[in-house]
């Protein structure tokens, strides 16, 4: 590609509404252009990257036996009513009426559409397993679109859907997709991590997220550096921090803690470690009638945080909400800050986090303003609690597989694989005939990659103060040739055209910057755009038979003899 | 590709709602699957064809210097309000509100979006000319979606937009696109014709349609076999059928024609040629006030048809409508069937078609029920009329370029190139600075190809009673290998795998039918799907060292020695 036949548009400053680095850099590099809130034009420079991402995904999906098709952007509401998602999904689901007043949605995903295809196309177990995918425009009406392509409204997603005869087959299809995703992210040249994710009502270990590692990531990833344990924060298991409970050694004592409503303040006042305190979290579960209302008390160590997903999995807490202050006063006899499991005004269900259940001589609220109990002990001062994993993992926790301690890093979710089971096939009556001619529900899996989000995530991981640093596989161009004074020097012009043609012939995705810009502006453009390999051709070097090579991460240029440059660049590309 | 790794789904019968052959065959061949009214899943077999069509378009657009980008499916209403299309376009424009109640549209085309990009990106004449295109999902809420991909609601279109400094530049950009379109349709391997089209308010010859020739086409194309004149029916110029007007030879006579309200019936009653009769068409043009209302009388030869587009171009008729019966009675004094230009009750504006203006001794209504005038003559019996080209061309008319006679064939519109001028840049204030630093309006052209419609049009042109006959360039596969008894015969299996691998190595897009179907069912599937080249491998042939080749249009198979088959097929592909 010659730059004068392409469209290059860079900005010195990012627009004011660009908050994060990837958004700023993509705007400055002319890769995207805002059309509306959360809606972007993919400019020529950005589209090239999207196409490279798509092609890698496509090649690996095909290799894994998935079959490409294309489902519509606009889909009839009836299908979404069959599965209940028409009602369950909130305003994030973009709804539209046609000229006859019929309801449609702009697809955020295609579980319903593919299940509709499959229920009429798949009749026999002989046709299974099968996996269909498409790469298509999606729309989610985010309440607050931001961060450019990271949380836009219109975006491109690859979504695949597998169908199997039974749970065992689903597991195999799932593993094939897991492996394909691993290859895809490896080929992108990005640092990534697959983590186990919560999979809601389905249960089991049937869901993983793929994250691009980046300090700016929204999600906390938990992993064990000395084993293969990895999960997102919602799903990471927190074990008890002592394996057994020490014997009680202190007496239960009501202690004045005036104005000390937080564990940190109580610990400071009493000059004890925060780890000896227990905090109280009060939840409400509504019943059919007012008198069926239940109040629950969850106990966590003072330095731990509640994990709301784990909380919803405690038996009886599926539909919990946080209690109101008036409920707390009614059940505990005092306001928040001095609550505890001993001497509540009305009976509450107590659940202790695993770590709390193995504590002795702990400090908790006394259900009286300005007072705490010290020396509280299970069994002696209050009944043995229900025990559950309620808290977020923290750095340094033992790994649940017993093979080390956990670490936490930040990530950006770019892929998700999920065993759906019969969630959709049941509602939509998608069955096949088994070997005995009996209808059976299809076992379904779904597998998504946020195509356009990959661009943002890749940049969050790979940038410096000059701009973007693309991994070669998804760079808009692999190599840029920057001639200095091509219009003035015949030698530069001749060598430039020769090298450009040789690179094209070698199948290198090269752009020749023939715009005639000054070297400073030209180099700044390509550093901002992030092309990984640059060759500079100038009269001074040519006199000595040399060209200049600069890798995007290199501190300095390397001189390479003219005749060796092509091979040198090929070596760099092969090593990338 | 192995058939067992792909998805093949054929039907014996087309669904009842499929009316035309391309819709029936695409449904039967498993290329599309209905999701909703005018909304289709592109199944794997169909998507392969779409991708081939897209790739040919992309290659030729790039070669012509156009630059690919991607504009969003969902676009803010504000842009469409700027150009007035928000109000002007009817219910065909799909409108949608987001969670905040803001208005959006699902794009039917992208003139507004690209002009919004260009008005901020293009600042100087140095950046011109430029041409951006995208291949994107479109939506038009057709009142009555039908004919499968031919008149669907969701479809894929390639739309390109050129921007130039002046009208001369626009003409050049337009010609480049016209030439690119010609190459694109040639590469598809389809019989097509480019015809001049009406370009509304712009005037001049700045619009052409590209049609795939097919007997079932909705549009009539007018062309001169002995010159390069070609236009669609709306735009084709109809000349006067006699160059001069004969002298009057008959007297004006009021003649009883009881119950004969049609020219055909009058001609039969009077035993004269239909070509001697004149028919009357009455139009109304509303004024600001009731008394400003004008009634117009258009006169055509009895065997000719009114061309409504030409009518709207007659000075004063831009906003015409057909007159109501009560208006006709008020102005003419009688009901339709006996109307004419002589003795109207109230004054009307008379416009005669070019052919009528050169008629003498003609027959027309007498403005009295059951009476016509015979022997009517211009100048003598009524004033000389305003003359205009009002009629549709008919087969055998003289070509307006004077180089032969016109013929008519049917076509399906699949492409349109259009000189827009400043229609959008004016409304959206899209300017650039010229050499003198003065802002000038951008001159714009737009260029569309209906990607998914190409599939329907190609089939309407190429089918037989067995199914589709794809041109090789856009066939889902170029070649199918059909082994007979691959599971029983080691020899067949070995030769099949060898040939399959050799074809893959040679870059041939081949599918190996390894499904194990009976030969009859297997051949019927591939004839229905329309793969242009078939190789059959069986034990009987192998014993004699022969394989069988069948071209999709061939009446019989050809035996080819095993070792020569690859070269034979390559020869067929090269010749295609």
Automatic annotation (TrEMBL), chains A, B:
Subcellular location: Cytoplasm
GO MF term (any one): proline-tRNA ligase activity
Keyword Cell division among UniProt keywords: no
EC number: 6.1.1.15
Keyword annotations from UniProtKB, A to Z: Aminoacyl-tRNA synthetase, ATP-binding, Cytoplasm, Ligase, Nucleotide-binding, Protein biosynthesis
EC class: ligase
SUPFAM superfamilies: Class II aaRS ABD-related (SSF52954), Class II aaRS and biotin synthetases (SSF55681), YbaK/ProRS associated domain (SSF55826)
Domain Aminoacyl-transfer RNA synthetases class-II family profile per the UniProt entry, residue ranges: 33-471
CDD domains with a match to the protein in the record: ProRS-INS (cd04334), ProRS_anticodon_short (cd00861), ProRS_core_prok (cd00779)
Record field: catalytic activity: tRNA(Pro) + L-proline + ATP = L-prolyl-tRNA(Pro) + AMP + diphosphate
Domain of life the protein comes from: Bacteria
NCBIfam families: PRK09194.1 (NF006625), proS_fam_II (TIGR00409)
Biological role stated in the UniProt entry: Catalyzes the attachment of proline to tRNA(Pro) in a two-step reaction: proline is first activated by ATP to form Pro-AMP and then transferred to the acceptor end of tRNA(Pro). As ProRS can inadvertently accommodate and process non-cognate amino acids such as alanine and cysteine, to avoid such errors it has two additional distinct editing activities against alanine. One activity is designated as 'pretransfer' editing and involves the tRNA(Pro)-independent hydrolysis of activated Ala-AMP.
Self-association and partners: Homodimer.
Family: Belongs to the class-II aminoacyl-tRNA synthetase family. ProS type 1 subfamily.
Free-text comment on this protein's domains from its UniProt entry: Consists of three domains: the N-terminal catalytic domain, the editing domain and the C-terminal anticodon-binding domain.
Protein name: Proline--tRNA ligase
Biological classification of the source: Bacteria, Pseudomonadati, Pseudomonadota, Betaproteobacteria, Burkholderiales
